[in-house]
Amino acid sequence: YENGKWYLDAKLGLNLCSNFMKNICSQVGINLKDRNIVNHSGRTTPITHLFCEGILIVTSISITGHKSESSYHIYSRLSEQQKKDVLSTLIDVVDLPESQNNEDNDVVDLLESQNNEDNDVVDDSLNKNQDL
């Protein structure tokens, strides 16, 4: 905050912009090892948080500035706990013999793994679009 302004009049260069999110993460102590943190992460993470907290989509869209629900849904992802809850509900519906109950966790792990791979594809796509 300087001279009544919350921003600088200076232009942001490519180097500053490309490292912006990484610098913020480092300053607040977020471990960046083996993580693909990009500037767009600052948009994806809050939208996912709003979605997971059950905030109405129409409310979130009014805050994020998305023009459509479909563009908003690109960023809204289930939390790991929500995924487990949904998968557990589906498994509970199926009447499995007692001997197969131990396999339930294997099914959950397999489905979570597939879902994480799908999210990585979306992340890669967003990163490629950001580079354009």
From TrEMBL:
Source species, domain of life: Eukaryota
Keywords: DNA recombination
Classification of source organism: Eukaryota, Fungi, Fungi incertae sedis, Mucoromycota, Glomeromycotina
GO MF: DNA binding
Name of the protein in its database record: 783_t:CDS:1
Biased composition (Acidic residues): 101-123
One GO BP: DNA recombination
UniProt-annotated stretches for the region Disordered: 97-132
Species annotation: Dentiscutata erythropus
InterPro entries, sorted: DNA_brk_join_enz (IPR011010), Integrase-like_cat_sf (IPR013762)
